């Protein structure tokens, strides 16, 4: 019957909303405490860490720097991932700030016609990565109490993301026929990049004061939306656990873990990680399962990134025609690849050279693990994020220039051969 699937979806959503509302009525104190926890997470970690990156990304778009990078990196990003050169900016900012920074930038690219719909979906598929500081500091040191584990998780995570990007190069072939502002690589590469930056700045037209004000205003609005999702999902996870829904949903996962041979104590952390990355990772680190299995589950959770992050990204993409389904498929593939590479690298000895000098992680030590770092530690962490951004962008730029020069040399050589004939 026409329209019945839509009515079924509406009915299901209505039941879910009513159930969550009643659960919150039955567990008001627990829900309130979970909401406070989510708010503290946002105010102490997410807000101060993401706000500068959001503002700077808006400024770089407004002054034309991103457009110039698009010209410089077009010879690299197009052959590797079938995305425009500006995709390198989304990738590097996602690496430095983590999710949902990549989705914010990709949505702006689409609205500015810097990429087509399919290119935006490809870009979102492999740029949705966790930042290195989260894996090295929060997970490796804070949860597993062993800094050497951070390198293992980071390598597996970024290898998986790169392979997802290569795989999604084939996605949407034949559909990507929309005309976009594709950057030309003819002529002097640096002159073209400079001219493109000037053109984009002139087209924007806002004074720097107006641009800065708009950047701060838009960034605050986006972060408040993210705050709402963090608090909401913190409460949802709590009431679903208390009402027995998460244990019920864990039954098929138990069968899957038995089939694979994973420790069953990792089922609950895995289910929590499906909803929220930090909670699932911390619970996995607190189990008595073998270390390699703990790391594999945590690596999957980090790559999957959690329904809380997915909801944030879905809201960021509102107002664009970028479809959400390819993103979900990419996250599943990324999670499986990251977990597999984690096991492989662990068996090769990666991340096991540094012995732990911390007390074993237990749920009671979460507060210590997440204690506020010293001023010097925060300063060095900031330098680390800046270094990652500079290294990625600089390396990609140099490699892109090399590809461009090699292409020009082939053209000159071909013309010389033709003239000799």
From TrEMBL:
Q: Which UniProt keywords apply?
A: Membrane, Transmembrane, Transmembrane helix
Show the stretches that span the lipid bilayer. 12-29, 49-73, 80-99, 123-144, 151-171, 223-249, 256-275, 295-317, 329-350, 389-406
Query: Keyword Transmembrane: yes or no?
Result: yes
Q: Does this entry carry the keyword Iron?
A: no
Q: Which residues form the Nucleoside transporter/FeoB GTPase Gate domain?
A: 45-160
- In its UniProt entry, what is this protein called? Sporulation integral membrane protein YlbJ
In its UniProt entry, the species of origin is given as: Effusibacillus consociatus
What gene does this protein come from?
A: ylbJ
């Amino acid at each position: 019957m026409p329209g019945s699937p839509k009515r079924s979806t509406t009915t299901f959503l209505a039941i879910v909303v009513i159930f969550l509302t009643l659960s919150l009525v039955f567990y008001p104190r627990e829900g309130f405490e979970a909401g406070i926890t989510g708010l503290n997470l946002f105010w102490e970690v997410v807000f101060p860490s993401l706000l500068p990156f959001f503002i700077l990304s808006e400024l770089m778009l407004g002054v034309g720097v991103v457009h110039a990078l698009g010209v410089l990196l077009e010879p690299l990003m197009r052959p590797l991932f079938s995305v425009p050169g500006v995709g390198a900016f989304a990738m590097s900012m996602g690496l430095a700030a983590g999710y949902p920074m990549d989705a914010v930038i990709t949505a702006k690219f689409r609205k500015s016609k810097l990429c087509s719909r399919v290119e935006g979906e490809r870009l979102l598929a492999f740029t949705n990565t966790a930042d290195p500081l989260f894996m090295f500091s929060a997970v490796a040191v804070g949860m597993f109490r062993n800094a050497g584990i951070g390198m293992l998780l980071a390598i597996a995570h970024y290898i998986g993301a790169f392979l997802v990007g290569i795989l999604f190069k084939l996605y949407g072939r034949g559909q990507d026929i929309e005309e976009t502002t594709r950057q030309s690589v003819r002529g002097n590469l640096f002159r073209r990049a400079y001219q493109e930056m000037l053109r984009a700045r002139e087209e924007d037209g806002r004074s720097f004061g107006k641009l800065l004000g708009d950047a701060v205003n838009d960034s605050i609005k986006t972060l408040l939306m993210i705050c709402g999702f963090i608090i909401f999902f913190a409460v949802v996870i709590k009431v679903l656990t208390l009402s027995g829904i998460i244990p019920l949903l864990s039954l098929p996962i138990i069968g899957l873990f038995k089939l694979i041979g994973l420790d069953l104590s990792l089922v609950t952390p895995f289910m929590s990680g499906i909803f929220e990355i930090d909670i699932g990772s911390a619970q996995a680190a607190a189990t008595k399962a073998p270390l390699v299995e703990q790391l594999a589950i945590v690596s999957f959770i980090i790559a999957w990134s959690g329904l809380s992050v997915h909801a944030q990204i879905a809201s960021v993409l509102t107002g664009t025609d970028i479809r959400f389904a390819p993103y979900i498929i990419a996250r599943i593939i990324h999670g499986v690849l990251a977990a597999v590479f984690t096991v492989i690298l662990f068996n090769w000895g990666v991340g096991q050279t540094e012995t732990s000098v911390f007390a074993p992680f237990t749920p009671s030590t979460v507060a210590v693990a997440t204690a506020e770092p010293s001023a010097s530690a925060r300063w060095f962490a900031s330098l680390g994020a800046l270094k990652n951004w500079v290294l990625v962008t600089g390396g990609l730029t140099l490699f892109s220039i090399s590809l461009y020069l090699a292409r020009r040399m082939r053209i000159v050589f071909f013309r010389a051969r033709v003239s000799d004939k």
